[in-house]
Amino acid sequence: MSAPFLKIDRLSVRLRRGGEGRLLRQASIAVAPGEVHGLVGESGAGKSMIGRAIFGILPRAVEVIEGAVRLGGTDLFTLSDRERRRLVGVNAALIPQDPLTALNPSKRIEAQMTDRLTRILGLSAAEAKARALGLLEEVQIREPARVFRSYPHELSGGMRQRVLIASAFAAEPRLIVADEPTTALDVTVQKQILKLIAEMQRRHGTALLFVTHNLGVVAKICQRVSVLYAGKIVEQTDVATLFNAPAHAYTRALMAATPRYDRPEESLAPVRPEVIEALSQEIAQTDNIWAEARLAAAGRRA
Amino acid sequence: MVEPRPLHRRRSIRLWLGAAWIALLFFAAVFAGALSPHDRLAQDLMLQTLPPAWLPGAEPGYYLGTDSLGRDILSRIIYATRPALIVAIVASTAACLFGSLLGLVAGFFGGWADRIISRLVDIWMAFPPVLLSILLVAVLGPALSSVIIAIAVIDWTRFCRVVRAEAMQQRRMDYVDSAKVAGYGTLRIMAREVLPNVLPAIVVLFSLEMGIAVIVEAILSFVNLSISTDDPTWGSMIAEGRGIVHQAWWVLVFPLTCLFLTVLAFSQFGEGLKERFDPVMR
Amino acid sequence: MRLSALIIRLISLVVTFFGVAVVVFVLVRVAPGDPIAMMIGPGASPQDIADLRALYGLDKSIPLQFLIWLGHVVRGDFGTSISLRESVTEVVFGRLPATLELAFLALAIAVVIGGFMAILAARWRGTATEAGVDLFNGIALSVPDFLWGLTFILLFGVAIPIFDISGRVTPTLELPFVTNFFLIESIVRLRFDLTLDLLGHMLMPAMALALPLAAVISQILKTSLKEVMHQDYALIARTKGFSETYVLLHEALRNAVTPSLTVIGVQFTFLIGGTVIVERLFSYEGLGNLAIDAVINRDLPLIQGIVLLFAVIFVGVNLAVDLCYVALNPKLRHG
Amino acid sequence: MTEPLFRIDNLRLSLPDMTRKPLFGPAPRIEILKGLTFDIAAGSTIGIVGESGSGKSTLGRALVRLYEPTGGAIGFDGQDITHLSDAALRPLRRDLQVIFQDPFSSLNPRKSVGAIIAAPLLFHRVATSGADSRARVAAALGAVGLPRAFASRYPHELSGGQRQRVGIARAIALSPRFVLADEIVSGLDVSSQAQILDLLARLKDELKLTLAFISHDLSVVRRLCNRVIVMRGGEIVENRDTAALFDAPEHPYTRQLLAAIPLPEIDPGWLEAG
């Protein structure tokens, strides 16, 4: 495995005002080019916080206490806003969750696919257009030229998600973050989109961080997995070990709670209270190691 | 009672400030006789356009000075609170009831009811409000009652538009369907499920409307169409003040300040009330 | 936009216009006080009064009078002004340019101030800047144009006398204008001295009219911008490396304007209505000022003419807003 | 075979298509339910499954007469309720209850949880007095695993899972004969989803309810329902007992749906399998 392109080191994030709530607790994730790393957890576990930290667009009400986010070896927190935007703009791309709201309704697909290519990557209009059209074909859109000229409301949900995938890969980023890209889609469309993302990722050798709450999707598309609970990565392993011999009680509880049509009796078991109890102890324990970390954090750039 | 968080306290300041000024107005209106130092109508040509007490050439006892007919400005301002409050409360209530009802019907039922009521609102809004009010008062004759009728007849569209939009939005909510499933009739759904959610908007509008009513009354007095007697209103005082603003600025400044504070008080009071009684905001 | 939808819209405008005509016709006829008696001398014989009533067609039944009058109106003839003894159409269209210039100057000011405030508050949302803008909105929204006018008269007319507080232009100036659009003509004729003088008179009334509209624009546009800034496509733009300001102006602004358009359109019609009292306050010789005199003099034909003209402006503004709404919204364009 | 609770015959329903509504003028109507015929046995739990746009939610709302059908017939408890007026429906309303999908829009934000549950009780005179209604509210809250004190709280103070439980409490408080659950777990996390389904299964047996469970997730339906209807484009594609449907799906669309569900286990060939 070559050196990881994305390296998140012990990243901790907290609400600026009020409350001791930690949103991320020393999360560390590394994703090498060509690798698909799954980030799974329930809502509120902090999955999207990690996604936003990677792009350096954390909400204003949140502050970074410690840790680093390195893209190709450069830590985002050491850069000025302008430098960070340039680094992220060139090297990373996001595939969003809801295709219905992820495209600007008053702009043609053309404008939304080529703006980064021309303004950030410096391609000429012609080059940008050619690359965009090429990628529309690559994502198996039948009439790329027509779609290229149309407005979002003229396309179906599945079609829009393909456009967003094409738009992400068009920038030839070395890292793609897919934030629950199929959650808003019907199950039949989901399978086609998952297949498409996997093929594109292999073909372009991109490092892919795949954020989802669906263990089934993780099993089908990821190579390594991190299981997140209340901002802490409770388990990080390769996907085979995770499904055959899950180490952490929470992972096992999550597996048991996930509905399976082939084993109705064993699935959908509510998470047992003692598992929750053990988890809160584990979280509290990491929190007081924190006492010293907080002082070190005083000098960090937010 | 939950310990008031800073945000909570900051928000209720505007409620108390607004309420304080409104209470002051009511107090002045009720005890006008006792409070005003002079007879509001007594003219004394010897004491024409006296400056306020703290300026040179002032006359003791005339704290805010006198107008061009030598009448005491402070007393007139205090008495003027009566017509202002009467107009504010009566006209706003009428406009609110009529407009909200039509808005609720148009928003909730849609179809023909909505088309007719919306067309009616369009026609009403095609008239410049001030022009229509002047026309109405000219038609009904200069009296406080015609001012009240004019304001109610014009401003009901303000309530109708907001309540209609709110009702249309509420209609799509699942809790309206849940009420249907529970077997509620349409009227009960409107009253029990939709209206409580529309009330905060109506409360804000009602207090805004009270401010607007006072302004319209002032405008009508300004074009000398308000009440016929020379019983003082802020508008007539302002009209007189406007004419002699270079010679005696205070004749205009004091009634204008009262009007300004009253309008602000009503609007902030409304906003504060809405936040206070809206459980979602609390 | 499909033709049928446009036709339905035009029909509804005609219905509104017709409704206004009916209301104003009835309202004016119900007014106590006989305009004719006011017009001719006290010594006039009943016969003279009867002849004059016939001349003005006041002897026929109300519905008949209405039809005759409507017939004339459709042909652009609003009858003759009783108090000015001139054709209403001339008088009204003579004064209209002054009001239009004032209204559109106020609109321009409101859009600039309101738009700037909204973008400022949306760009630095959650900070003191936004709180400051909210405070401005709160005050400017609840205090109407009439009060702002009076306040400006005191502030800039008396306390710091830098503006003229009455009239449309300094009376002593010799005006080379052919049309009544003084401001525009002064610019076209490159007579910037006159433009400055005109603005010196118009700025205060325009500001008085503009502030409430600016507050509405600022508040509605800000809320809409903040909503749009949280949309996924704004998030995507940020991940593409675009700065917050770029995202605000290039991705968010256009989508935020469409929903605010209708509210701003409504508020602009209030602004036009406001010219009636604000022109009176600044004795600015526009349509609004004329309207007040017409009512005081019970000049029925003039009142009807002015009200109908305001209705035309109102209907025009609404149509313009609808067309902009469709133009800005591609989904509607394909109808 | 007991008399079925619902007997549906060639049910048709068309609604105005608001998405293509021009700025002015009526919206074109499109047919959503295109002739559905099926029964719902008393005491059974029927799963209504389909992808978005299949008409499953519309079918659910037609069953409880939130929409009036444009064709065919709905028989409930032997009575034809297809075109009954609201007034005529009122006595039946107590037996037809709904739990809605979006916990944020199904509870009136300005009413306390207690008021939300008590109102139908008082309206249908199930509760004879204030004290009686408070007791029933407490019982309903207890049945869904919420403390009695929740009665004085407001919807915006509750989590998604807690709100959904209030929705269930409101429905069962009237001890109805039929409950429609419209995608009630789609917005929830796996752990709260499991709790809600566990709760529903228990209540179904205790209160001898007939339940219609609408979902786009076949795995959830497998756990809860004993009969399944698969819908596509407003038509019934397959209507079978649950075990039979999952073990030997007959219709290609059903097979395609099942094949598209990613089971939480390693299966390299799954992505490639068409």
Structural commentary:
The complex is a heterotetramer of chains A (302), B (282), C (335) and D (274). Chain B is mainly alpha-helical and 282 residues long. Chain B has helices at residues 6-30, 32-35, 73-109, 111-126, 129-140, 144-171, 174-181, 186-222, 234-243, 249-277. The relative contact order of chain B is 0.15. Chain C has 335 residues and is mostly helical. Chain C is 76% helix and 0% strand. Chain C is built from 14 helices and no strands. Chain C starts with a helix and ends with a helix. Chain D is an alpha/beta fold and 274 residues long. In chain D, the strands form 2 sheets. In chain D, strands 6-7-8-3-9-10 form a 6-stranded mixed β-sheet, sandwiched between helices. In chain D, strands 2-1-4-5 form a 4-stranded antiparallel β-sheet, with helices on one face. In chain D, α3 (113-123) packs parallel to α5 (160-172). The model of chain D has no long low-confidence stretch (mean pLDDT 89). The chains are: A alpha/beta (302), B mainly alpha (282), C mainly alpha (335), D alpha/beta (274). The interface between C and D is small, with 12 and 4 residues.
Give the SSE map.
The complex is a heterotetramer of chains A (about 300), B (about 280), C (about 325) and D (about 270).
Chain B: H1 6-30, H2 32-35, H3 73-109, H4 111-126, H5 129-140, H6 144-171, H7 174-181, H8 186-222, H9 234-243, H10 249-277
Helix pairs in contact in B: 1-3, 1-10, 3-4, 3-6, 3-8, 4-6, 5-6, 6-8, 7-8, 8-9, 8-10, 9-10
Chain C: H1 3-30, H2 35-39, H3 46-55, H4 62-74, H5 88-123, H6 128-142, H7 145-159, H8 182-188, H9 192-229, H10 232-239, H11 244-281, H12 287-296, H13 300-328, H14 330-333
Helix pairs in contact in C: 1-13, 5-6, 5-9, 5-11, 5-13, 6-9, 7-9, 7-11, 8-9, 9-11, 10-11, 11-12, 11-13, 12-13
Chain D: E1 6-16, E2 29-40, E3 45-50, H1 56-63, E4 71-76, E5 79-80, H2 86-93, E6 96-99, H3 113-123, H4 130-143, H5 160-172, E7 178-182, H6 190-206, E8 210-215, H7 218-224, E9 227-232, E10 235-241, H8 242-247, H9 252-260
Parallel strand pairs in D: 3-8, 3-9, 6-7, 7-8
Antiparallel strand pairs in D: 1-2, 1-4, 4-5, 9-10
